[in-house]
């Protein structure tokens, strides 16, 4: 270690320049690592990750492993059971008693990430997402060090009571450490996550999401205060949610007619109604691709997507429960002709 390193450390400490302070400390740790003094290098890294060790407060502009993301105002349609759990999380955050670590598990498209954004919006907090691209490193041992620094970075943020941290798709760091197919390096990474969660500032709200809950390390599961299951959608829930999504997007389009009854009939044709993420894409695309001079074209496009029949046979449409007027909308054939052909 050079004299310049010591001078810089003192300088950055006095200036409360956390970014400079940390970078200088890491340079020192790296120098010891290159010299073969691995124990001292690890010790410096451990000090930086220890909540009891002084770490200058950092500004959001200096973040390395997390980035701020904007929360939009899109509707968040959820089943009542999940809504009740979300209200509980909001209440727990406002009580500030240390119930602050939550895991959202469920299939893709169930609304896990969007719900985190919604929670941040309700609480009036800034939302920061972990940048896994910068966190995971191919160099042996570096990922664990990065995770330690990640939690140091989180705990050093100003006003932790105004922050939500999102570990979106934490699966890469949370697989079972005893899985024979799992690399030892990722096992060590999971251990680093465990330590970081234990030392998390209890005013900071942390939410992780996963699609692979059954493969989660059990010790990691126990670190979360509550596990929220996002697979609790009934068929009726999804039909109602599709209507909410449609109404949201219809407000953005001109010269488009509303026919909620027909819309819900079309959605009901699906043997398995997809989760909200996919529903949103189907509905949005049907509207975006529709002819601006045809107020019902989006319904025809939607029918083409969800129907298993490639041809709009009048008899098939009737068998699906569509009225003569609805068949006219979906086919462009006049009501009188529809009636005549169906009678024949």
TrEMBL record:
Pfam families: AAA. SUPFAM superfamilies: P-loop containing nucleoside triphosphate hydrolases (SSF52540). SMART domains: AAA. The keyword ATP-binding applies. One of its GO terms (molecular function) is ATP hydrolysis activity. Keywords: ATP-binding, Nucleotide-binding. Gene3D superfamilies: P-loop containing nucleotide triphosphate hydrolases. Residues 98-234 form the AAA+ ATPase domain. It comes from the Bacteria. Belongs to the AAA ATPase family. PANTHER family: 26S PROTEASOME REGULATORY SUBUNIT. This is AAA family ATPase. It comes from Pelistega ratti.
